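Backbone-to-sequence.
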């Protein structure tokens, strides 16, 4: 592993941490007027969009983003993160529905899900969305 890869992974993790807060805030807002399974989907797409934006301008700023239309890149980001989505939200829903003492611990549940999907999301995002080119 090289330094650029580790730096990107660290930044991706920091961006993901801010995304986790967006996820949690959106989830709690949506729970005021929708059931958990709907609220968790709305929260995911809100935080995924946030993460795409920050990763675009900070984590992968040396990638080929300048030659990509943002809307198409966002779609690629969402599609590339489908495996991570299923890992993330699978863990989230399992903990919420089958671990009674965690039912009200939404931040902890979301953290466990995010951690579960992070590796898949990073590798697929790097390969399929931002095309790491190691430009100076």
């Amino acid at each position: 592993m090289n330094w650029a890869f580790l730096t990107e992974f660290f930044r991706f993790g920091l961006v993901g941490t801010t995304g986790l807060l967006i996820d949690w805030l959106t989830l709690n807002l949506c729970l005021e007027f929708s059931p958990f399974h709907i609220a968790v989907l709305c929260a995911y797409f809100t935080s995924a969009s946030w993460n795409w934006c920050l990763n675009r301008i900070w984590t992968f700023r040396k990638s080929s983003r300048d030659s990509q239309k943002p809307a198409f890149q966002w779609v690629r980001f969402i599609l590339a993160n489908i495996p991570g989505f299923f890992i993330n939200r699978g863990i989230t829903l399992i903990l919420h529905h089958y671990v009674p003492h965690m039912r009200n611990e939404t931040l902890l549940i979301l953290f466990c899900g995010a951690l579960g999907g992070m590796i898949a999301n990073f590798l697929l995002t790097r390969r399929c969305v931002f095309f790491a080119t190691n430009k100076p």
